[in-house]
Design goal:
30% helix, Aminopeptidase, binds coenzyme A, acyltransferase, Acyl_CoA_acyltransferase, eight-stranded mixed sheet, EC 2.3.-.-, two-stranded antiparallel ribbon, acyltransferase activity, alpha+beta, 6 helices, globular
């Protein structure tokens, strides 16, 4: 399914129309492109994102190269999240896709200036619907620091269950952090009483 959305408001000319790979009621998802490297570089530089995702500082060129490499990888799908007026507001990905076991991981990052408007929840719901509605996934997982209250709230609201804690699983700023491990299984998604992305 593909539809068009403008990338930065109604004033944009036709050249900036972005083809959507997936859309829901309140966000669109466009396949991440190397031209999006500047957005990703900027968003990754935000101290909160850097802290919670344990991001290693990278040059713009390195971010671009990474996107290029990831595009070749069949095990993942990376998306730019676009708000209803077409503004790029964040990034969401379905990584580590294992089509035999039906498992994948979800990654999510919102631009600091676009947080708190429900875009993260909408994008997470959208990518979850993609994973269960178009791909044969059975189990999705997500991990975040146990003190990342916003992410814990977003994951819970999208139907994920915290199944455990990976103790001292990551090192950041000289300190070990526990990671909360969340999962959402297909039968649980089927039970969710909310419109699906394709109902938009
Ligand atoms: C986590 C993140 C994606 C959330 O983005 P967002 O745009 O703020 O998310 P949303 O607006 O969809 O939802 C945030 C929800 O968390 C709630 N929330 C925010 N801070 C909270 C807190 N301290 N305790 C409990 N709930 C909190 C908000 O109230 C909101 O719920 P509501 O709409 O019912 O009020 C964003 O903060 C981010 O990119 N963080 C850095 C990277 C990261 O942590 N990624 C997650 C890895 S899984």
């Amino acid at each position: 399914m593909t539809e068009d959305i403008r990338t930065a408001g109604d004033e944009q000319d036709a050249e900036t129309v972005r083809e959507l790979a997936w859309r829901s009621k309140s966000v669109g998802l466009a396949a991440l492109d190397t031209d999006d490297a500047e957005f990703m570089h900027h968003w990754r530089s935000d101290p909160i994102a850097a802290h919670h995702l344990g991001i290693w500082p990278r040059s713009l060129a390195a971010v671009r190269e990474r996107i290029e490499r990831d595009t070749e990888d069949d095990d993942r799908d990376d998306f730019l999240i676009l708000s209803p007026n077409g503004t790029p507001v964040g990034y969401v990905a379905l990584t580590g896709q294992n089509m035999i076991d039906g498992t994948a991981e979800v990654e999510l990052m919102l631009a600091a200036e676009h947080r708190g408007h429900g875009h993260a929840t909408a994008a997470l719901d959208a990518v979850v619907d993609l994973a269960f509605g178009e791909l044969p996934m059975y189990r999705l997982t997500a991990e975040t620091h146990t003190d990342n209250a916003t992410a814990l709230a977003v994951l819970a609201r999208s139907g994920f269950t915290q199944e455990g804690i990976s103790r001292a699983a990551c090192l950041h700023r000289g300190r070990r952090h526990d990671l909360a491990v969340f999962s959402l299984l297909r039968p649980e998604w089927e039970e969710l009483n909310r419109p699906r992305a394709w109902d938009a």
